[in-house]
Each structure stands twice: as structure tokens, then as C-alpha cells.
Amino acid sequence: MLPLEQITLTGHLVRLEPLSPAHHDGLVDAVQDGQMWDRWYTSIPRPEEMAAEIESRLERQARGEMLAFTALRPDGTVLGMTTYYDWDPAVPRLEIGYTWNRASAHGSGTNAESKLLLLKHAFETLGCECVGLRTQWVNHQSRAAIERLGAKQDGVLRANRRFRNGALLDAVLYSILRAEWPAVRANLEHRLRNRIPG
């Protein structure tokens, strides 16, 4: 079970709030920015599926399976969603995933800062020894973003999932260890330096 303390993580470019049904309209607006669902290799919800997606994540959160966040700009504009999941207290470790952001925010530094906030909380507050991330082999944009974080590739799970169109996809697994966190943090802070208002 995840340590389910509801928490808001705040940076300069992005704020991660606990997911709420009140975020529905903002999330619909965000997913329509660039038609984020229209990528066959992802599972981003369509606008008409957003209420069910929020309900599903909150049900999983109630069972202790995930801790779901909505990502927002400081002005309150909704960017997308992200989660902690797959908590293993014996290590301890967790994964960050089920993440998507509106297309116009790509390359803006908001995703990098979201990861900085999530990783910092995982390593420095929750005491994780390892944080995992995963994406699909064919999702080159996501793989490049994870690798820019400084995460190391652990392996590939072949034919591990079937998507809406019936295609079998391979998952690429990455991780960051506690010993690697200081370098990952320094890299993220350096990348964000020119994007944060002085």
C-alpha cells in the first residue's frame, strides 16, 4: 500500500495537486490540446472518457495502489496527470507513471520540474531506494525524456501489453537509485535554471 498522505508539491513552473473530480474540465481542455489521445501507442483518455479515468485513478488510490496528481501551471491552467504507483515498502521503491501533459506544454520545462518534485519527494521524504519509470518501446519521445532525466534502462518486457488497436507493445523499464539521485537532481536543476523566473 502506498503511503497515501495527500500532498501538494509546488515548484516554480508547475504545481502537483491531489487529483480531484473538480479537475475534470481542465483535464478535458488539456487532453484536447494536441489531441493527446490520438497516439495509438499510449492510453491517454479521450475527452468523453475523462470522468471515468479520474474515477478509476481515485478508486485505485482508495485501494492504496496509486497516488494520483493533477499538474497545473501557477496560474491554474491544467497541464495533465501523473501518479506514484507500484509501491514496495520492503525496498522501499515506487514507480512514477501514467503521465501525460497537454501538447503545448511539451518542451516548456513543466514535465522536468514535475519529475524533480516527484523524485525529490520519493527519495527525500518517502525514503525510496529506487524509483522506476516505464514507457513503450515505440514511444520515442517518452523514452528520450526519461533518459534525459538520467534514469538507467533496466530492460525490456516484450509483448507485455495489448493496446486499443490490438497491437502488442514492449515496455522499456528504467530506474534511478538513491545513490544516483544527487546527480539526477543537479542535472534537472541545471536544465530548469533558465526557465525559472529570476
Automatic annotation (TrEMBL):
GO molecular function, one term: acyltransferase activity, transferring groups other than amino-acyl groups
PROSITE patterns listed in its UniProt record: GNAT
Keywords: Acyltransferase, Transferase
Domain N-acetyltransferase as annotated: residue spans: 14-179
InterPro entries documented for this protein: Acyl_CoA_acyltransferase, GNAT_dom
Gene3D superfamilies xrefs: 3.40.630.30
EC number, UniProt record: 2.3.1.-
Protein name: Ribosomal N-acetyltransferase YdaF
Gene: ydaF_5
